[in-house]
Amino acid sequence: MRTFCFRSGGQKLNTTQEKPEWLVISEEVRTALAAGRPVVALESTLIAHGLPWPVNVETARESETAVRSAGAVPATIAVLNGVPLVGLSDAQLEDLARLPNVRKASRRDLGAVVALKQHAATTVSATMTLAHAAGIRVFATGGLGGAHREGEPFDISADLAELARTPVLVVCAGAKSILHLPRTLEILETFGVPVVGYRTDAFSTFYVRDHVPPLPVSVRVESPHETAALFAAHVRMGGAGAVLAQPCPVDVAVPAAEFDAWRSEAEKAAIAANVTGAKVTPFLLARIAELSAGRTLAANRALIVANARLAAEVAGALAGFRA
Ligand code: PSU
Ligand code: MN
């Protein structure tokens, strides 16, 4: 059997068959992968922890629809009853959006939630791990995790470490504007992760489009085809993850000055409430959504869907770069 290998850190991705037996891939996703058709992974932490009901399930469904309209198959990823699933059904997606006590799992938690038969929403890091195991190369989310500004200085998202080791292209609106963005970019450079600006020279900063000063991307591309060529070359030469950063849709983006006031207020509230660890990001996002009277929620939703659409276009272009 002919196999196509994408090497990274000693890992080998076999994009024909032989999926690991511990992973459950939906029929539709399996068929698409076997036929070499484009598939886009979607994460579940933004459903369970990043957005409130019912915006969460609506956003998840809109993202899946956007992927399909652009000619790819969506594969929303989560762990239910200890089973890692690639390609949730609509009922599973709704369960995940409604369940109150779903664990937020990054890469380090995957073994635990499987062994203990728990439900878990997967962050960027855990979703990349499972997408890669399934043979999916493109993944869409809202904003990356990164280095936080306040609190514990070593609170640096596992998303960054995952990008260093797993060959998946993460399509996002850059990193969350609640983060220390220059530090986040420095860490990505240290880890050898290309930060690709989609039709922009400035790194995207989630809800905000006018970050001052503009932060540099490592390279700019103009099309899905250029993105696919870049990512294929990166992986062929032993690279792992890459970031494709697209700015938030202009009609819903929030001005930096307004955002900064909400952010610092939310940070103070997090410190006062002693919020640490994995709870920091969901807490800040929820508080900022309240302070902005829902404006950041609308922006978050729109940017997630826009990223899903772009990811589908890139996955289509990447289908032409197999070997
Ligand atoms: N994008 C969003 N909302 C989110 C996230 C991404 O629009 O809630 C999630 C992703 O799952 C990402 C996580 O991995 O936030 C980062 O969490 P932490 O800072 O704890 O690593
Ligand atoms: Mn963290």
UniProtKB/TrEMBL annotation:
Domain of life, per lineage: Bacteria
Cofactor note as given: Binds 1 Mn(2+) ion per subunit.
Cofactor(s) listed in the protein's UniProt record: Mn(2+)
EC number(s) on file: 4.2.1.70
Binding site for substrate: K104, V124, S157, A158, D159
Catalytic residue list: E43, K176
Entry's Gene Ontology molecular function annotations: hydrolase activity, acting on glycosyl bonds
InterPro entries noted in UniProt: Indigdn_synthA-like, PsuG
Record's keyword terms, sorted: Glycosidase, Hydrolase, Lyase, Manganese, Metal-binding
Name this protein carries in UniProt: Pseudouridine-5'-phosphate glycosidase
Source organism of this protein record: Gemmata palustris
Taxonomy of the source species: Bacteria, Pseudomonadati, Planctomycetota, Planctomycetia, Gemmatales
